[in-house]
User: Fold Ferrochelatase from Parafilimonas terrae.
Amino acid sequence: MNLGSPDSTDVKDVKRYLNEFLMDGRVIDKPFLLRTLLVRGIIVPFRAKNSAEAYSKIWMKEGSPLIVISEQLQKAVQANFEEPVELVMRYQNPSAASVLKKLHEENPQLKEILLLPLYPHYAMSSYETAVEDIKHQHKKKNYASVLKTIKPFYNNEQFIYALSESIKPYLQRDYDKILFSYHGLPQRHIRKSDITGQHCLQVNRCCHVASPAHKFCYRHQTIVTTELVAKALNIPEEKIEQTYQSRLGKDPWLLPSTQERLPDLPGEGIKRLLVVCPAFVSDCLETLEEIAIQARQIFLDAGGESFEFIPCMNTQPLWVQTVTNWIKDYFNGSTEMLFE
Ligand SMILES: C=CC1=C(C)c2cc3[nH]c(cc4nc(cc5[nH]c(cc1n2)c(C)c5CCC(=O)O)C(CCC(=O)O)=C4C)c(C)c3C=C
Ligand SMILES: [Fe+2]
Ligand SMILES: [Fe+2]
Assistant:
């Protein structure tokens, strides 16, 4: 299960997509009336045209890169199984309701469904809303099957290995720094997901101090991914930096911001930059347009000399094998990857 895209780059389709996405109370977490006013009255009318233009720059002949690549991943994984492997999106198509219907109609004996949210890290606005949406649709129709979910895999050995191997070839050439740019979040979301109510963004160096809050802390989980990849690839500390991208609105988001850090780097002697986006396993608007086009321009305009975007794992054989292994382990009785 992935996030989803508009059906086309037409402004009306982009509007429909943005309305569904941003009216999700786990994304814009304001009371319903205020959210409606904000989303339908301000954000979508002002954003839709620019978003549609951004999508047009990266659209493939088969459709949105996020969907096309996720479909390719689904087909590659399906090739390793007799059991059906389906792709589902949180917003727009194919929806959880339609995929569940299809699965149960085509497989009347269906006993178990294993859900893989295609997000390495836990966030209320990505992993949690995806899981809750499909659970809700499953319960609504009273399906007899059991639905199990794979947990965020930010620190999973095979994920780290596949991600590190996807980065490795880019480290062969000379570079000054590798930037790990993760999708950002409002800081409020980090506090809301803190099950202790007193750890996240409250304790000094919270993400480095052991706490049960880490199970739901996006910031902690992104930091761990960066540290594990750095260790796997032996990247010196001074050559790594972590930032957060894609900010929306005026609330404080996670820092440092990718867009704000980029223009500073050349002045600090960072002229040759590598950028990787490990919050995404499939390339999408936020990597292909925001990073590979916009961020590159910001960096080069500020005096940077080379900017290399490292693509997501997409359909790389090691990633397909990793997903396949998780599913096989589950069917062989392992509960290690399951979210309880
Ligand atoms: C990686 C996980 C993601 C988190 C966490 C997340 C939070 C989040 N996003 C928005 C607002 C937007 N995000 C948009 C696109 C988008 N976001 C993710 C992933 C996460 N978002 C992906 C994979 C994509 C790309 C979709 C595609 O079709 O390629 C957009 C839409 C595009 C735009 O207009 O910029 C918005 C809006 C918020 C507000 C948020 C947390 C609160
Ligand atoms: Fe997003
Ligand atoms: Fe935290």
In short: The chain is about 45% helix and 10% strand.
